[in-house]
Write a structure and sequence with these properties.
The chain contains 18 helices and 26 strands. It is globular. Strands 9, 16, 17, 18, 19, 20, 21, 22 and 23 form a 9-stranded parallel β-sheet that branches. A 6-stranded mixed β-sheet has the order 4-3-8-24-25-26, with helices on one face. It is of the alpha/beta class.
């Protein structure tokens, strides 16, 4: 039995507790005191510790795993989406417009209508929505409907407000799509989105805090106890701190300030000021709210066809540059971050973008060695052999989104072709090269943050329709769960605090409705969370909550 000498606040008995330590040890029972794991052992050993005020939880043979760590989750946007039109389940342009029509009925004329999450891959019309579709349901409101990633559609009113017309040139790193007559059709790709988005009033700190209050219970229901929220502006970080100071932040958060992404958002001097003059660097904070790495981004995505690839997308004859920063600036950005003690998480999706980032990272890390650096490649879709070797050599992690395999995997074939599609998010290859992988959802850029369909996708390498996506890249159940637990703590320098069930670590754990390690493979995607325990307290109990 492993323990400290204290009477527990609670004990959990009659379970199958998988610790995710180096041996993934299994225990029957555990004890918790002051939000930490106090002891692990047999039922008899742990029951002997109970005092008169100890709460007893009978696990009834159920499986317990550490709390899930979602390493790339836009949490406050999840809450924000609840106040907007949800478009992620729409199966047609017609259905989208019906939702806009209903919202227009209850929205005062002139006020913004915002929607989020559409994906043309699910539409029966097999096309993008345009301004013409939106104009048919309202011309009295400015409307922005955000695709699940890197593309918006707006109505004519917004184009007029933004001053976008036939003669407006494409911004660097973006594209204004046109009708056959040369007039803008309302589709704004990549950096062109900013023409419209910058017109929408920014949320207040209190509004961000309220959005977080809506989002956090959704994560608890899924067994998620820790989140890394990437690419935050200063006002968004202040929203988190507002909630934290009010005592309402019931989620362990690691915040990644946005240092560079879209060129016309902020000047380089402003970005350098943010990284340099704050007087802090990666790791500042406590077990509830901590500052992580700087979030950077190079390219876009695959289904929006804005990733920076070596070879064109299917049906195209050239590689387009929708990059969000100038390649020649990368060295300077990385070197400055390395000097100041910041970790870097950089969004690269195309193979060319990933090589570009790693070439400069490798150069900087050799010039300014920092053995404690926790740099990582976010998304890391199509690594070359060069990329995997450099990541292993420099201990650079890959932050993957197996949710994309599950929910959108079939869309790859039409965009990148079969050969590249089967090399998508190659978890097995990364591990075999000695590259650490961590897993995440990237909501709101996908349907759900649910980690169990994602774990299924890593283990079975199938999407939700059962279509194989790179079956040779399957990993074991233990490797997959490690990527959602203990390995996620490496990014945030919190290996000593959480990610496994061990004496004196934070008491974050999840009780499942079936055994993840022993159930049939196809059942992994259907696992449900019976109970989520955060800091030793039950924050979700399926038996006590409807839904």
């Amino acid at each position: 039995m492993r323990m400290m000498n204290m009477e527990p606040d609670s004990i959990s008995i009659h379970g199958r507790i998988y610790t995710m330590d180096e041996k993934n040890s299994e225990f029957q029972a555990l004890a918790v005191k002051d939000g930490r794991f106090l002891a692990l052992g047999t039922n008899e050993e742990i029951q002997s510790l109970a005092g008169k005020n100890t709460k007893i939880i009978d696990l009834q043979g159920r499986t317990v795993i550490p709390g899930i760590i979602d390493s790339h989750n836009h949490l406050w946007e999840v809450g924000e989406k609840l106040s907007q039109i949800r478009l992620d389940e729409c199966t047609s342009v017609e259905e989208m417009m019906a939702l806009v029509r209903e919202q227009a009925k209850i929205t005062p004329a002139g006020k913004w209508i915002l929607g989020m999450g559409w994906n043309e891959g699910y539409f029966k019309e097999v096309r993008y929505p345009t301004r013409h579709d939106i104009d048919k349901v309202t011309t009295d409101h400015p409307v922005i409907l955000k695709r699940f990633f890197n593309m918006d559609v707006v109505n004519t009113r917004v184009l007029e407000m933004a001053g976008i017309n036939t003669s407006t040139p494409d911004p660097q790193g973006g594209k204004i799509e046109k009708d056959t007559d040369g007039s803008p059709n309302g589709i704004l790709r990549a950096s062109a989105k900013l023409f419209a988005r910058k017109l929408v009033p920014l949320p207040t700190e209190n509004e961000i805090a309220e959005a977080l209050k809506l989002a956090i219970p959704i994560m608890h229901k899924l067994g998620i106890t820790s989140v890394i929220d990437p690419g935050l502006k200063s006002y968004e970080i202040r929203g988190y701190q507002t909630l934290y100071q009010s005592g309402g932040l019931n989620m362990r958060m690691n915040l990644m300030p946005s240092w560079h992404g879209f060129k016309d958002e902020e000047s380089i001097d402003q970005l350098d000021y943010r990284a340099n003059e704050l007087g802090i660097f990666s790791g500042f904070g406590d077990e509830w709210l901590r500052i992580g790495g700087l979030k950077m981004a190079i390219d876009g995505g695959t289904t929006s066809r804005t990733a920076y690839m070596y070879e064109p997308f299917v049906g195209e004859t050239e590689v387009h540059d929708y990059n969000r920063l100038n390649p020649q600036d990368l060295y300077r950005f990385f070197r400055r971050a390395q000097e100041l003690g910041w970790d870097i998480g950089i969004h690269t999706i195309g193979d060319r973008a990933q090589d570009m980032a790693l070439e400069q990272m490798d150069k900087v890390m050799k010039e300014i060695p920092r053995p404690d650096a926790r740099h990582n490649i976010i998304h890391a879709y199509f690594p070359t052999e060069y990329a995997m070797q450099k990541m292993a050599e420099n201990h650079i992690a890959a932050v993957l989104q197996p949710t994309f395999i599950y929910y959108e995997g079939e869309l790859l074939f039409k965009d990148v072709g079969e050969e590249r599609a089967h090399h998508y998010k190659p978890a097995r290859s990364y591990l075999d090269h000695g590259v650490r992988i961590t897993s995440s959802s990237d909501v709101e850029s996908t349907v759900s943050a649910n980690p169990f369909p994602a774990l299924y996708a890593l283990v079975a390498r199938k999407n939700r329709q059962g279509i194989p996506i790179g079956p040779q890249e399957a990993i074991t159940r233990e490797e997959a769960l490690r990527s959602y637990t203990i390995d996620g703590t490496w990014l945030t320098r919190e290996e000593h605090l959480k990610g496994s069930i061990a004496v004196n670590k934070l008491a974050d754990m999840v009780v499942l409705d079936r055994n993840y390690f022993e159930c049939p493979e196809e059942e992994i995607q259907s696992i449900r969370v019976d109970m989520t325990i955060l800091d030793g307290k039950i924050v979700w109990d399926r038996n006590q909550t409807s839904g």
